[in-house]
Design a protein that fits this description.
The chain is an alpha/beta fold and 245 residues long. It has a single domain (19-236), classed as Decaprenyl diphosphate synthase-like (Undecaprenyl pyrophosphate synthetase, 3-Layer(aba) Sandwich). It is 41% helix and 15% strand. The chain is built from 7 helices and 6 strands, in the order E-H-H-E-H-E-H-E-H-H-E-E-H. The protein has helices at residues 27-33, 38-58, 78-101, 117-130, 146-162, 173-177, 225-236; strands at 19-23, 63-70, 104-109, 136-144, 190-193, 212-215. It has a 6-stranded parallel beta sheet with strand order 3-4-2-1-5-6, with helices on both faces. The chain starts with 18 loop residues before the first strand and ends in a 9-residue tail after the last helix.
Amino acid sequence: MFFKKTKEMPIELDNLPKHVAFIMDGNGRWAKRRGLPRLMGHNAGTEMLKRIVIESKKLKIENITFYAFSTENWRRPEDEVNGLMDILVKFFRSEIDEIVENKVKINIFGDIDVLPKYAKTEVLRAIERTQHHTEMNFNIALNYGGRDEIIRAVKEIATEYKSEKIALDDIDESLFSDHLFSKGLPDPDLLIRTSGEQRLSNFMLWQVAYTEFVFDEHYWPDFDETLYRSALIKYQKRHRRFGAI
């Protein structure tokens, strides 16, 4: 089952982030360490993603975002890219009924028009089936790049200004945010990156201006519910000042 009970550890339920973002790093290295093909690592990573979605809903975290496929990932070997698309389709086909049952809304951050037709069809079907749900936003960054997102927003705003739909003084942080893929959602309170790497890799560059970061040494397929709760506890121990004292 997609949504099932998991082992708990102490956590302040009244002090949880409203939005947690994940850079799911280390799938390939996880597989290589075990002498397995890289796609086996991505399959294992998808299984862990399911578990983290379950845990997030259990904790009533309202928004979760996963960096699934970047604009740069197209540079990977063709067989790996095709395998990733197959994993994406398999995920939606196998899990969508239970996602619908739990009233979780799927949002896609990124340009899906360039996806293979069969993958785009499955993504659009999942979006359509969940668009009215309100229990939790399950955001998947797919063919996503932070710089690309910002450029797209600038072009849209420039077009609106040129057509006199907006004035120069109308352009502020709120208007800019409304032209991002994450429109209407709060910025991430916490970003978790696995595998020990400590960089953003072109992920949500605008939205993470005041986000708390947790960098975990484990590869993503090993990042379980206990490690997730540990990251949330680290977040809860921090004092977020947002530029103030």
